[in-house]
């Protein structure tokens, strides 16, 4: 039950139950995803909304924000802001807060997990044992990870956390980004294709910005060595999925391990028929510990905004 003194927030998509309960205890919460007639709802209640809470993978549309004249903050459950029009929020002086730093370790862990699982055939090995095939057949050989070259596209916090982990596997670390990063003792490549050509594992850790849309395309797969793997823990929008499917079908590259897709939760069924792809349902930050940390971070960002104090995860 809300009180009249509680600020009003609009939740764009469901978040974990504990966070929803914490939001309900502190705020008057409207849930956009529960409305059968969203335009009518926004006309009726849009002017009451002071802050928006959304997920990194969902964001909030400009059209929705246009119906919220009082909104002053967007609290993102996640770090991705690709589904928010940051030019528009800047124009409107809407603060945007993310769960900064909380999920870096988990996402980097999953990148390494995907790399190891794909190249060491862990999912296939599990099936092999369960199906009793080991009784009659020796398991097929896999591909070594330690000592290989990892190419990291996007050397932000997550890219750097992946690099630190890869160091533990004695890997040669190469990267590209908009610019060379000071103080990083890794091999810089001036462009994506040079990086791709020298990578045994090409890991995408760049943002899903408009400039990166479809950037991992057929030309990148052609540049990669035939034995190389693609790992994506960033956003599906960076990859031309049709070109990736062709590259996997034609063995242009060894394989791919993907946590993210262009049109989640819909995954092209062509992937299902392929043995050389490992698929995950966007779970890089999905551990109990990290999701609790992300929830707290959302609450802290909102509390900072509503008490006119610092917003710890403010990006704009
Ligand atoms: C989350 C994410 O899975 O941080 C992001 O941008 O995409 C992920 O951490 C998502 O925000 C929660 O659904």
From TrEMBL:
InterPro entries: D-isomer_2-hydroxyacid_DH (IPR050223), D-isomer_2_OHA_DH_cat_dom (IPR006139), D-isomer_DH_CS1 (IPR029752), D-isomer_DH_NAD-bd (IPR006140), NAD(P)-bd_dom_sf (IPR036291). This is 2-hydroxyacid dehydrogenase. PROSITE patterns: D_2_HYDROXYACID_DH_1. Residues 112-284 form the D-isomer specific 2-hydroxyacid dehydrogenase NAD-binding domain. It comes from Serratia marcescens. It comes from the Bacteria. Gene3D superfamilies: NAD(P)-binding Rossmann-like Domain (3.40.50.720). One of its GO terms (molecular function) is oxidoreductase activity, acting on the CH-OH group of donors, NAD or NADP as acceptor. Residues 39-312 form the D-isomer specific 2-hydroxyacid dehydrogenase catalytic domain. Belongs to the D-isomer specific 2-hydroxyacid dehydrogenase family. Keywords: NAD, NADP, Oxidoreductase. The keyword NAD applies.
